[in-house]
Amino acid sequence: MVPVLLTALGVGLSTVFGALLGFLFKKTSHKFNDIVLSFAAGVMLAAAVIGLILPSLEYGGFSIIFTVVGIFAGALCLNLIDRLVPHLHTITGVDREAHHNGNIDKVMLFVIAIAIHNIPEGIAAGVSFGTGDITSAITVAGGIALQNIPEGMVIIAPMLASGISRGRTFLIALMTGVVEVIGTFIGYFAVNVSTAILPFALAFAGGTMLYVISDEMIPETHAHGNERGATYSLLAGFCLMMVFDFLLG
Fold first, then answer.
1. What contacts 154, CB < 8 A, 6 or more positions away?
2. What tens digit of pLDDT does each residue of 179-193 get?
3. Which domain range does residue 170 map to?
4. What pLDDT does 95 receive?
5. What are the φ and ψ backbone dihedral angles of 39, each rounded to 5 degrees?
6. Residue 202 near residue 71, CB atoms below 8 Å
7. Span 96-155, pLDDT tens digits
């Protein structure tokens, strides 16, 4: 239980850390954002495959159908969320200038979108502990945490530009991290109530992460003419987590 608690706090606090960096670097170039976000996408891709989907196949035995259905269920779940809230790419770069019109309602809608997207990410971190493989769990949590840092950075400037005080801006950023902490415990307790759902739950969590990578992160990082650098950055992130998992495995 202690590792889960520490992971939940780490995943949540990574958003806060990103927010603190956002206060320091209010204006960053698209190229910098794309490289960092691509690296995080590579880390998340490795975490989804190595830490969630492959263990799902292992624990599912010959029932590979559980893994396939779980992946698509996770993707469809986030697809439904995307129909209800704005896409994350609207605040991670190209549309940032649009927030300087001081429209608080619009800015807060984007922040709420971040918070809602953090729920399945937290669940993925919690579910990964259901395998009992701490290395895989750390891989997943590390991937999510790293992705949260640039995510936390980009929500600061729009809120400050809309007239929200620095203190309240930080509090709102903190709450987006708290949502992820809650999601981590939901995922952990869900698979501990019934280990029978573990293969599906792992694949579901992996599917949500694959959806975020393909639908949100990669399109954003390829939208400003930095495709080649973003691609190599993604590969670097993937290889880093692959080596990390190999050394600890």
1. 22, 33, 91, 92, 93, 96
2. 888 988 888 888 777
3. 2-23+32-248
4. 44
5. -60, -45
6. no
7. 444 444 456 666 666 776 777 778 778 888 888 876 777 778 878 888 888 788 778 777
DSSP string, 71-116: HHHHHHHHHHHHHHS--GGGTSSTTGGGGGG--HHHHHHHHHHHHH
Query: Taking the C-alpha atoms of 47, 120, 73 and 244 in order, what is their torsion angle to the nearest 10 degrees?
Result: 0
**In sequence order, which ranges of 97-133 are alpha helices (DSSP H)?**
104-127
Count of the separate structural domains present in the chain:
1
Q: What is the pLDDT of residues 94-113, one digit of tens each?
A: 344 444 444 566 666 667 76
Q: Which residue shows structure tokens 């792992």?
A: 202
Token code pair at residue 15: 């958003």
Q: CA–CA separation, 208 vs 180, rounded Å?
A: 14
User: Hey, what amino acid is at 103?
Assistant: N
Q: Please report, for residues 11, 99, 106, 172, 233, the alpha-carbon distance to residue 70 in angstroms, rounded to integers and kept in the order given.
A: 23, 37, 34, 32, 28
> What size, in residues, is the chain?
249
- Output 116 or 49, whichever has higher pLDDT: 49
Q: Positive or negative CA dihedral for 183, 67, 1, 46?
A: negative
- How far is it, in rounded angstroms, from Cα 57 to Cα 135? 17
Looking at residue 133, what DSSP letter applies? -
Position 89 pLDDT exceeds 50: no
